[in-house]
Amino acid sequence: MGRVSTAFAGVAVFTSIFCPEVSAQSCPGVNGRYQPRMGSGYRVSVLATGLRQPRHLVIDSAGNLLVAEGGSQNVRRIVLQDNGQNVCAGSSSTLSGTQTNHGIALSADGNTLFTSTLASVFQYSYNPTTGQVGAGKAIVQGMSNTGTHPTRAIATSKWSPDTILVARGSNGNIDTATTDKSSGRSMIKTFSISGGQSSAHQYNTGGEILAWGLRNIVGLTEDPQFGGIWSVENQMDDVRLSGRDIHNNNPAERLSYHGILNATNNRYKGLNYGYPSCVPAWDTASINLPNVVVGSLFKPDNVPNANDCANRMTGRLHFPPHTAPLDVKFNANGTQAYISFHGSWNRNPADGYRVMRVDFGPDGQPVHDVSSKTASVPVMENGNIGGCPNSCFRPVGLAFDSKGRLYVSSDTSGEIYVVYGA
């Protein structure tokens, strides 16, 4: 059984029909706080509760789950065990000496752990069998913001194993300084891992710009089949146009493509995506400008000069405003990307608070057109969105294990879920 997607007032609305076999199940002694509703073909179990703001996740080469706990600023290692139909936590411990508030990644060979904080990216030697980590070393520094957006999404590359990607968000809702590359904000940069050994890279002056004009990238990933780099972005709040408040249904959140890192000629490298001068459309009726479709860039009120919006890059797919995508991960064969939507604070009624799926074709690109409003397929959502944001799960991090099971963190409820059927 499934769900029907419609559009109303510029917002995707989902009418749900659920089968009883996909209801949430728990591991022995683990009782989840909420009962997620699952899309057709998926079921869920609760792996762990009581974590301190779990954010991004990775599975190590020995099959253990590593969790960036934002509330404790440490990495937690959960040893996984199959328990009949579910995977459960065999043991759980903190990796002493680690620092993170959001970002976590592993090297291509699995023997180096990377984490991120407001100011730095750290590197640790890591033994996936024992869980032992070495002393931390900063390899990227100088990323502190005085305003908002303290998270630093990081990702490593299996296609370019000496490269680490680091995203740094804006200093506020409208950060006018980011019209200049030298601000070092609202961008994704790539750095040589080995190049940061003797002396840490400085974010503003080191590395290479992969993409800029991106308000706040909170999730990064590499397509396992083609090596393409993808990001999810949280767009601007409180948007006004020609004196009208259009923020409830604009601008769109977006999934953006940044090419292949080791390509001889990556035509996406260094492109500007418009922020803060230009933002992507979602509800075109409320924008009421000629030739605007979903994803078209337009200039809101009170932003820097934007005469060149037509010459800026837009996203590859777009999503409802303020749904706050925080992570994106591909399945093993690259045919599906899963996106966590943390949920809105700047919208009435609330929206987001779910995990969705986007289908990809044999060319390594989404099967839907850039202007589609129906590109995402429901996977996991709250049964009562009216209880959000305080009384619901809010998905953040995603990770796949070798058996195709999808792990989902919920920071506000301190839980880890496992989705089967992904």
UniProtKB/TrEMBL annotation:
Pfam families: TrAA12. The keyword Signal applies. It comes from Podospora fimiseda. Residues 1-24 form the signal peptide. This is Soluble quino protein glucose/sorbosone dehydrogenase. Residues 37-420 form the Pyrroloquinoline quinone-dependent pyranose dehydrogenase beta-propeller domain. The keyword Ion transport does not apply. Keywords: Signal.
